[in-house]
Amino acid sequence: MTSNPQVQTVRGPVAVGDLGTVLMHEHVFVVSEELRQSLPETWDERERVDDAVTRLKALAATGVTTLVDPTVIGLGRNVARVARVNAQVDLNIVAATGIYTLADIPDFYRYHGPGTVLGGPEGMTELFVRELTEGIADTGIRAAFLKCAVENELTPGVERVMRAVAQAHLRTGAPITVHTSAVARTGLVAQRVLREEGVDLGSVVIGHSGDTADLDYLHELLDNGSYVGMDRFGLDILLPEDQRVATVAALAREGLAERMVLSHDASCHIDWFPPGVREQIAPNWHHTHLHDRVLPALRAAGVTEAQLTTMLVDNPRRYFTPAGA
User: What 8-state DSSP symbol labels residue 2?
Assistant: First the structure.
């Protein structure tokens, strides 16, 4: 039994008990890497790193001590770049392994692995395990959790990635976060597939659950044992903030704060939108919005300080504590 479990971060291992206040679903950079290389005029490395440092220093000034970054293959993950940012900011950044796809697997795995022409073992699982136990590429930075995605439908590619993630979880004990669509109720699909593989759903965050005010759906996810990610505060274009706040407050009144985690799903830089458009359509979608406006609104809605601590400190600590520790 481990008396002082640790979680891997970009700067090295940190005691789980020292994670402090945690935002459980945030990105530093989300980049379409091949297009970035083909359009060099859209990227200034020094400018982007300096901007990220400024933004994350502002986040650290709110009292947040840990940022959990589910940027994986498919989202332009570059942990060496994140490490350059982290070297200038006193913040724990937790890296992930996994593959983000809403349809097909990367062509690299198309012809080999279970159910393919060439067959053989699942290479994705081997990669995920290596990144959790040895490090990501040659950086020496180890991932601490797994990430996969299912949006509107469970395609064969999405399912294969999800089952590979589940197998890596079973081999390492690393927890899982799943990008889902609350509108399409695909959190339930993710739970079904992961359960079929033998995953303890208490080790899973169903991401983006806060995009709905459908309490019946949220209760179903919670009854299955997972955490729900109320993790897109600031994205009012998907669900207005007053509804997001009211939903968290309603679940907290039912004693369910211990199964919710809070965040924004924001990025220091994301290249999915033309310059200036993100700020135009979602002006509150940034890393300090939770502390600037959401936490006061939750308090006004009746959420207690103890419940906020549960969602921001205790639940992340429990999520990253290995079973049996």
Answer: -
Nearest 5°: CA angle at 204, between 182 and 26?
A: 70
DSSP string, 68-127: E----BTTT--HHHHHHHHTTS--EEE-EEEB--SS---GGGTTSSTTSSS--S-HHHHH
Are the C-beta atoms of 230 and 307 separated by less than 8 Å?
no
Quote the CA–CA distance of 292 and 284 in Å, as a whole number: 10
Claim: this prediction has a pTM higher than 0.70: yes
Determine the Cα–Cα distance for residues 248 and 284; give it in Å rounded to an integer: 18
Averages of pLDDT over each 10 residues, the chain, 325 residues: 82 98 98 95 96 98 98 98 98 98 97 95 98 98 98 97 98 98 98 98 98 98 98 98 98 98 98 94 97 98 98 98 84
Domain range summary for the chain, segments of one domain joined by +? 6-319
The neighbour count for residue 171, using CB atoms within 10 Å, is: 14
Gap between the Cα atoms of 39 and 33, Å rounded? 10
Q: Give the domain 6-319 fold.
A: TIM Barrel (3.20.20)
Give the separation between CA 62 and CA 264, rounded to whole angstroms. Answer: 14
